[in-house]
Design goal:
About 55% of the residues lie in helices and about 10% in strands. A hairpin with a 2-residue loop joins strand 1 and strand 2. A two-stranded antiparallel sheet has the order 1-2. The N and C termini lie far apart (about 45 Å). By secondary structure, the chain is mainly alpha-helical. Helix 2 runs antiparallel to helix 4. The chain has a domain of about 80 residues. It contains 5 helices and 2 strands; from the N terminus they run ββααααα. Keywords: Membrane, Transmembrane, Transmembrane helix.
Length: about 120
Amino acid sequence: MAVEAKLLGTPIPVAKPSSSRTWTWLPSWYELRTHYLREVGFLASLFQMIGATIFWISGFTALPPIYDRLTSTAAQNGAYWLPQVLGGTGFIISGTLFMLETQKKWYKSAFGILGWHIGA
């Protein structure tokens, strides 16, 4: 059965997808192990998400009412600097993986591709 869409009031027939699979929030463990963890783009996004999740802690602790109460150097290192270093490392890994994803060979830069510059 065709679904109709309208463009400037004119009906346009649109074919219904033949796949019976519905959209899900999370892949199955099998799909995660056999497909997604082997994709460079997925791994880059995963590292970026983990890095950002850790990095926001240092942004939160940098607020003056919080940072001013971190009187010892150990507290500042643990609550502010450590999340910055770990989160920043996640961003560096993510950018490197995004750059490698766009390159034809791992040792040849892809200066002509926008995605390479986004990763850089």
